[in-house]
Amino acid sequence: MLAQEYRARFGVETSYRVMHQVRAATTSREPGLRLLLATVGWLLSNVWVWLKAQVVAQTLRPHRAATRRWLDAHFRLDAFRDLLIEAIKARYHVRIHLPCPFPLASPLKL
């Protein structure tokens, strides 16, 4: 009885830990925005689990264990998150570095 309750609690704690890896951080006090960001975090973590399950399900039976080990090692949630961030940056042409308006090599003349 106690082991079943702890197992259920462990699953809830694990899902919160996983969700926090993809949830956007904010200092906003607006509850609607915080709820939206938490919902997107839950959605992304569930999509990640679903994608892994689809790949394992498509694999032939003798190779399922090897595929699951490979996915656990290489298709991690942080890698999935970084892939999505890079795709968004490429889609919306996000620039990290701003071009300098003047050449830095030229000496200043006063």
Summarize the structure.
With 110 residues, this protein is mainly α. It has 4 helices and no strands. Helices cover 66% and strands 0% of the residues.
Structure write-up:
- This protein is mainly alpha-helical and 110 residues long.
- It has one domain.
- 66% of the residues lie in helices and 0% in strands.
- It is built from 4 helices and no strands.
- The radius of gyration is 22 Å and the shape is flat.
- The mean pLDDT is 79.
Jot down its keywords.
mainly alpha; 110 residues
Q: What's the total helix number? A: 4
Mean pLDDT: 79
Q: What is the string of helix and strand elements? A: HHHH
Distance between the termini: 81 Å
What portion of the residues fall into strands of 2 or more residues?
under 5%
Task: State the helicity in percent bands.
Answer: 55-70%
Q: How many strands in all?
A: 0
Question: How many separate domains?
Answer: 1
Radius of gyration: 22 Å
State the shape.
Answer: flat
Unreliable spans are none
Structural class: mainly alpha
Outline the biggest β-sheet: none
Describe the secondary structure blueprint for this structure.
Elements: H1 2-20, H2 31-58, H3 64-74, H4 77-91
